[in-house]
Amino acid sequence: MNCCKRSVIASVLFGALVFSGAMGARAQGKLSPKWEELTADDFRSGVQQSKGTCVLPFGILEKHGPHLPLGTDLLNVRYASLQAVAEEYAVVFPEYYFGQIFEAKHEPGTVAYSLELQLRLLQETTDEMARNGCKKILIVNGHGGNEHLLPLFGQAQMDRPHDYVVYILDGERSKPGGPAKKSTGIDYHAGENETSNTMVSHPDLVHLDRATRESGADQKRVNLPEDVYTGIWWYARFPNHYSGDGSVATKELGEWNMKNWIEAIIEALRAAKADDQSLRIQNEFYEKSKHPLDTRP
Ligand SMILES: [Zn+2]
Predict the structure, then answer these.
(1) 296 CA distance to ligand 1 middle (Å)
(2) Residue 250: which pLDDT band, with cuts at 50, 70 and 90?
């Protein structure tokens, strides 16, 4: 009995909270930046408010050393993107983690779609975003394994006409000037930087005490000139899918990294909104591509 009474009171209270929350949001005229949280009508307003500029934060599901969650890249890129759009409004596409991650297929929890599907899904996603008014799409990359995929995708937009522009912002970069780093070696994946970032975005998901259970050292198992690429390079050097030392991470370094990343996203959003040239030049290019023999210098 007690329990039911409580639940009735709870649901009345909850209803009142939801109602006042909705009223509050309306009264302030504030729209959620999250695509999935908007009503159809508010979505229209959101796209208008963002001047047709939308964000696609791109994560992945892969092992992150012995101490960070599989969705670290997705969690961090969404955290940074949502902080950025609080400053410079744009509609943010829901969770997207369908990227390139073949090199971690030997580890538990990795979701590695085929290359064909990655490219097709990304194209259909940006096509659908554009069909819904997102004519400027900023892909914020949160995953190192996408570093070649995304420029390829961007370049592939020249293959056939699109009525929108894709902008790609590469992953977070550790800028100089912040708190001194404690580790001195290579820090590519789940190391000091990324662990510090996750301590800011999702501190409850960081198991710092487990960070030394595996080695994130470069095992240098191939010896090739720097300008020779081979796909096995990552596994050869970092077979534990861990690169660096996450155990020395600090919240201060994470705050510095995140601040820089958020600022870079805001800058990219403002640049995309102000860009009135790319689409015009794209259209000129598509038109000329139809009859190349008429093209004169
Ligand atoms: Zn990562």
Answers:
(1) 47
(2) very high
